[in-house]
Amino acid sequence: MSKYYDEALIPAELRRTFDVYERMRALNIPLGSFETEVVSLANANIAGAVLHESGLVYLSGSTAGTLPMVDDDERIKHGQDGARQIADTLIKRLHWALSCGGEGDLNDVLYTVKALGMVVSPGGGAFRGAPAVVNGFSFRWHSVFGGPRSDYAHNGLDPGGFSGVHARSALGGFDGRFSIETELIVAIPPALARDIVHTRGWLFPLPPVMLDKVKARRP
């Protein structure tokens, strides 16, 4: 792990014991490239990620799936597949938000704080499967960062730890031309957050002047 993770104030018993990127390779989660993923914030309406100097990283919601949810096993599986796709998207975004300036990477994630999953479905309590749909996101996150519902868990325990476990809200009754939208908050070491904010600001994608600065520093 990095110096940021090694020096973080978390119990030794709860520290991860694996390289996040090894799990990502095994799960076929792509990272894209600097050229495609690290772009300018010019003309953007919102940020994909905002870093706070306290160590909290707020990831904007991403959408996936093409069908509204109903209480049908096949339809719910469609939503879960979309939710897993969102997890992969946010993992990739978080990687570049932490690493594009050479400061840190996903192995610096201390733990996951909160997820919000919003499911497109009939309102008025007609659909009760929102938690099952959002599980597609949560369990994928467990698999990458550690958690009892990960692909690596046995008897409800992941030998790699618990840093993918998060508080969560899973809500149905939303309108949209997709199945689910999920947003997330994660925690990184405050020292890393301060270094990133000091070096290139708190926004990702990057303001144009900071993008030029980061590109100039690349080998």
Structure report:
This protein has 219 residues and is α+β, with helices and mostly antiparallel strands. The protein has a single domain (3-217), classed as 60s Ribosomal Protein L30, Chain: A (2-Layer Sandwich), CATH 3.30.1330. 36% of the residues lie in helices and 18% in strands. The chain has 7 helices and 6 strands; from the N terminus they run αααββαβαββαβα. The chain has a 6-stranded mixed β-sheet with strand order 4-3-5-2-1-6. The two termini are 23 Å apart.
Describe, in short, the structure shown.
The protein has 219 residues and is of the alpha+beta class.
Number of helices: 7
- CATH class type: Alpha Beta
Which homologous superfamily in CATH is the superfamily? Answer: RutC-like
Q: Round the mean pLDDT to the nearest integer and report it.
A: 95
Q: What is the ordering of alpha helices and beta strands?
A: HHHEEHEHEEHEH
- How helical, in percent, are the residues? 25-40%
Cα(first) to Cα(last) distance is 23 Å
CATH structural architecture = 2-Layer Sandwich
Spatial extent as radius of gyration: 18 Å
Beta-strand portion reads 15-25%
Q: Which word captures the global form?
A: globular
Low-confidence stretches: none
Q: What is the spatial order of strands in the main beta sheet?
A: 4-3-5-2-1-6
Number of strands: 6
Largest sheet, if any?
6 strands, mixed
Structural class: alpha+beta
Q: How many separate domains? A: 1
CATH fold type: 60s Ribosomal Protein L30, Chain: A
